[in-house]
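Notebook entry, structure prediction.
Reason for the run: the old model in the group folder had no record of what sequence produced it. Starting over properly, with the input documented here first.
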Amino acid sequence: MFKKIASIVIKLILIIILGIGSILVVFGGLMGGAILEVMKTAPEIDPNIIKYEMSQNSTIVDENGNEVDSIATSEYREIIDYKKIPKALKLAFVSIEDERFYKHPGLDFQSILGSALENFRAGSIVRGGSTITQQLARNTYLTNDQTYERKIKEIYLALEIEKALSKDEILGAYLNRVFMGQNTYGVQAAARTYFDKDVSELNLAQCAALASIVQSPSENSLYKAIKVSEVTDQRVMGEFSIDGEKYAAIYNENPYKREQYALEKMLELGWISKKEYDEAKNFDVASTIKPAERSNTEIASYFNSLLEKQVVRKLQEIYNLSENQAWDRLYYGGLRITTTIDEDMQKELENIYADFSSYLMGDTSGWNQAPLLDLRYDQYGNIINSDGNLLYYAKSNILNDNNDIRLRDDEAWYDDDGNLVLSTYKAYLDQTNLYFRNYYSLDENNKNLRTHKTGHITFKSNEDASLDEDENIVISKKFLDENENIITAYEDGTFSINKDFYEIDLEGVIQPQSSTVIMDQANGHIKAIMGGRDQSGIRILDRASAIPRQPGSSIKPIATYTAALDNGFNLATGMDDVPLMKNEEDQPWPKNVYEYYMGLVPIRRAIELSINTIAVRTLKEVGIAKSLEYLKNFGIIREDGEDNFVSKEDNPTTNDENLAALGLGSMTNGLTTLDMTAAYAALANQGKYNEPLTFSKIEDSTGKVLFDDKNVITHQVTSAETAYQITSALESTGQSYNNIYINDIDYATKTGTTDNKVDFWCMGYTPYYTVGIWMGADDQNLRMNGNSIERAALMWNIINNHILDGYDVANFDIPDGIVEIQVDTMSGKLPSDISRWDPRGTIRTEIFGPNNTPTEVDDVHVMITVDDRNNLLASDITPEGHITSRVFIRPKSNYDPNEFGGIYPKDWTYRPPTAYSNLAEDPEEEDDEKDKDGKDKDKDKDKDKNPDDNKENNQNPDQNQNTNP
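New structure, fully documented this time:
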C-alpha cells in the first residue's frame, strides 16, 4: 500500500520538479507539457523478463523440436543466483552506489536534489544521482545518453520496477547486469576476470574493490590492459591473452582509493565492524589480482552468427527493446529458437567451399601462380596494381625466416646519435603509428593467394618516432634503449624488427573470397549460408550478410526491368542499343561489354545479353523514383534505414539515386549477397517478397510464442504474371551461358560483373530454391580472371547440382494470366502489314501478362520510297524504274551518330534516310554502247557476282552517314 501511494506522490513531485527545471535551465530540458509524452514512449515493464531472462541459456532447435545448438556467450558475462552472491559484496555496492536503497521507493530525493543543483549550474546533465533501481532501468531498457528525455524515462521506469519487484530481486538483477570494465558484465564475470575465482570466494576487501569500479569502469578498472610489447616501467600484475594476443595487467591506483571509501561507508552505516574494517583496509587487493585467460566462444558458423543478429533485431522490432536488452534476452532469456537451417545442405555447401578453386579450375597444386585472379607482378615478384604501385610484398621480400620484418642495409641504418633511420617502402609513419606493408603467399596445397596483414607499432609521441627532412623514419635511441629486443642488427648490415611488438597474420586470408546464400523462396527461410572461404575460429567475417559489394548487371532485373514490365513495357519492346550521353571524359556512355552497339533490340534479348545501354535507357524512361519504389518492396531499401543503399538524403553529392547505380549496379556501397538473394527470391515466389530469416519461431522459457510466420515482413513487389515474365527472360539468359545443367529442372539466372572484374555475381533460382553467389577479392585492387559466366555461373551450377541431387524434375508454374501471342519485336506491339516485310523476321511469339499485352499495332516499322541505287529518298529526278518502297525502322530514341563521334549501330542500314537522291540517269544506260563494243565488261561481271550489296535492305552505313551531315 505504501509503495502504491508513494509512487503516485513521487510521480506528481517528479512532474513539478522537472517542470520547474525546464524553465530554469535554458535550452537544457524539456517543456513540462512534454514530460507525460516522454513517459508514454517508455518501454513497458515486464517483471518476468527482469527476474528470469538472466537465468538460462537460449537454445536452437530444428523444425522437429530437436535441440541442435545453444546460444553461446563469452566468459565475460556470467549469471549467478542472488543467494550465492556474498552479503559483503551486496552491501559494498549499496554503500557507495545507493546507501538509502532499502528505504526509498526507487528514487532518492536527497540525491536527486543534489545532482539537480549541480546540473543547473552546468546547464546540462553532468551528475546522475541515480539509484540502483534507476541504473537497472537504464541497463535493461535504455541507453547511456545524457539527455533529459532519457532521464525522465529512467525515473519513470524505476518507479514501475519498484512496484513489480522486491528489493532483493532488483539488486540481484542489477548485480548480474552491471558493467565492470574490461568488457565484463556482472559480478560473477568480474570476479573471474580480476581474481580468477568464483564471486562466492571473495573477501571483504575484494568485494569493496569490485564495488569501486562501477562509478567509472574505464577509469576504475582494477587493472589496465596493454599489449605486452608496450610495457615499460609499469607495475605488471599478471599477463593474459585475448584472442591469441598477449596483454599485461598494469596496476591502476584509482579503484583502490575508492575501495577505501567503500569500506569507510560500510563502517559508517554499521554494516561491518571496526575489526572487519581494519582487516580489509590493510589487505593488499592488488597483490591478489590474477587476470584470467579469456576465450570468446562466439559460434563460429556463419549461419548461427547471422541467426543471433537477426533474432536480436527482431526482438527489438516487435517488443521495442533496446539493443542491450535484446542481446540479454537472447543470451540468458531461455529462448527456444526454431532454426531454418537444412544441416545436410549446409554441410554440402561447406564441403564445396573447402575445395572451392578445385571445383572451378581443377587441380592447381602444381601451379606457380594463384588461380582465379588476374595478378600483376614487378621484377621482384611483388604484386602491383595496373599503375605499377605495390600492393603486396612477396613474403620472402619482407619477412625473414623468423617471420620478423627484415630490412636491407640500404633500408635501415644507425645515425651518428644512435637513432635508427628507416628509408623503405615497407613501413610508413602516420602520426605516432608505424605501419608495415602487407604481404602475400601462395597456399601450400592449392596455390591460392593468401594475403597477410602485418599490423603496426604505436609510439607514445613523436619524440620516439618522427620523419626527418628527407622523409625518412627516425626511431629514437631512447625508445630503442627502452625496448632493447625490438631491433636485431646483423653483421651484414641488415636489420629485423621483432614481431612481438606488432600484430602479424601468419595464416593469411585466402583470395579470392566468395559468399553464398540459399533460400526457400516460398517462405523466406535461409537454408544454408557461407560467408567466406577457408575461415575458422572467432569473429569470422561474414561476407554474405555484412559486406556489401557492387552488384553490377545482376541489379538490372530488380531495379529496372520488373518496374518496366509493370509500367508500359513488355519483353518484346524494342529499345535502342546506342549511347545515351557523354560522360565526364567526353566519351559515349554507357558502353557494352561487346564494345559496339546493335541498335534496336527487344528487352528479352537485352536482358539475355546484359546490354548496358538498354538497361539505362529503360530505367530513364521508367524513372528513378519508380525504381526506388520497387527496391523498397524488394527489401533493398528499408524503412528503418538499416540498409546499404545511399539515398540523396544520406549524401546529396554521392548517392545511388542515378542511372549508373540503378541501371548498371555501380552503387556507392553495394549490396550484400543476402540482400540480392532475398530480392531474387521474390521473383521466384510469384512476385512476393519474404523477409530472409534464419529462424521461423521464437518462444520464451514458458513456451509463449514471441515470433512466428505471422510476424514475417512481406511485400507484394509485383504480380505473378510480371514475375513470370522476368523469370522467362532469365531462363533464356541462363541457357545462353551453356554451362548450367540441373537434371531438367527449370532455372533462371543472371550474372553480374563490375568494372575491372573486381566482382563476379550469379543470382538465380529453381522451383525449389533461390541461390545467390558473389566472388571477388577482399582487396578491391585485385581483379578476377575469366568472366562471371565462367566463374560465378559455373559455381552456381555446381552448388545447385549438389543441393538438388535426388530432387524431382520441376518446372516453373505459369500464372493463369500469361498469354502467348505473335508480336513485332521492334515495337513490342501487334504486327502490321509493314512489319512483316522486315527481312530480319522481327515477328515472334512472346509471353505477356494482363497489364502489358499489346493492343496497338506496330508503329516503328515504316514504308519509305527510295532510290534503289543508293537507298536515299526518291526525288523528282529519280527515274521511275529506280523508285521502290522499302521497310525501315524509326526508333523513338532519334539517335544522331554525329553527336557521338560518328558511332553507328549495327542496324543503321534500317534507319530511314533523310537526304534525297541526286541521281538522274541510270549510269548503266550510259554504258550500253560500251557494252556492245565489248568494253568495260569487268564492271558487269562484278555486278553479276553481287547483284544486291545488302541482301536484307540494300543499303550501308556510309550512304546514310552522308544523309546526316
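Summary: The mean pLDDT is 87.
The old model has been moved to the deprecated folder.
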